[in-house]
Amino acid sequence: MARMTMIEAVRSAMDVSMAKDDNVVVFGEDVGYFGGVFRSTQGLQAKYGRTRCFDTPISESGIVGTAIGMAAYGLKPCVEIQFADYMYPAYDQLTQEAARIRYRSNGDFTCPIVVRMPTGGGIFGGQTHSQSPEALFTHVCGLKVIVPSNPYDAKGLLIAAIEDPDPVMFLEPKRLYNGPFDGHHEKPVTPWSKHDLGEVPDGHYTIPIGKAEVRRVGSAVTVIAYGTMVHVALAAAEDAGIDAEVIDLRSLLPLDLDAIVKSVAKTGRCVVVHEATLTSGFGAEVAALVQEHCFYHLEAPVVRVAGWDTPYPHAQEWDYFPGPGRVGRALAEVMEA
């Protein structure tokens, strides 16, 4: 089986989908001739031509608005927003149009678009290249939200997203593009070529949207995470020597509540980890669901570990970024409660 980086896996997903279905089109800023700022679309224009993989003006609302019109016409656009931080001009198109087409048309029309966007920090990108806006999408009825943590999941989930009849927000943690970053920024990153989840089939396969995965089995405490924080949680559990069960949500909307409840009912403790700012972050929704569905199983309050309630600070990136130390302290806190 081939070994791929997450960049290569994402590119392979689009390649497989474009080969399978002529209605799949890829476009965005610099995705054509240049192959994308992270090279995620490299070679697609040369292979499929300028009508199926093409560059757009610097207009996020234009990119998404065009994709919605194409989808209503019968095409399946997979578009790229160059950084998640730039999606705000397109938020109106996403929330007022894409998310509501099925509802407003009583099912006569759907909106099969995928909006890809590199998300998160850890690359010294500063405040306008490091944001994690996933919670802004999970609040919107009609959108699906995916955040993969590895190349195998990224390809299978992206193909599933492209084949889904409704709009899917596909957030790619850019800190994971080339390796499974575990938060130890002072250490070299292990490449995906040396990680089991870097093994990715060449052809077509899908992973069901809405299904979480247990990455580490444990009985003392449940750690719920997604994206880069899955690897941070795994490192924190190892560093702290705590028998933690780590759940990779993969899909935030729809959410695999059954997997969460099953784990917390077993462990009786829960820590939720995400990179986005704490207040009104997606971890608040998870914590509320755990309290609602697992109250009589809990041995300690649910604890959240997240980014600060500030703009992303370039100079204090590794203090802002939830690392194994912060997660480890949260694990110790719930174990001692």
TrEMBL record:
Residues 4-179 form the Transketolase-like pyrimidine-binding domain. It comes from Rhizobium anhuiense. This is 3-methyl-2-oxobutanoate dehydrogenase (2-methylpropanoyl-transferring). GO terms for biological process: branched-chain amino acid catabolic process; response to nutrient. Its cofactor is thiamine diphosphate. It comes from the Bacteria. One of its GO terms (molecular function) is branched-chain 2-oxo acid dehydrogenase activity. Keywords: Oxidoreductase. Its EC number is 1.2.4.4. PANTHER family: 2-OXOISOVALERATE DEHYDROGENASE SUBUNIT BETA, MITOCHONDRIAL (PTHR42980:SF1), 2-OXOISOVALERATE DEHYDROGENASE SUBUNIT BETA-RELATED (PTHR42980). InterPro entries: THDP-binding (IPR029061), Transketo_C/PFOR_II (IPR009014), Transketolase-like_Pyr-bd (IPR005475), Transketolase_C (IPR033248).
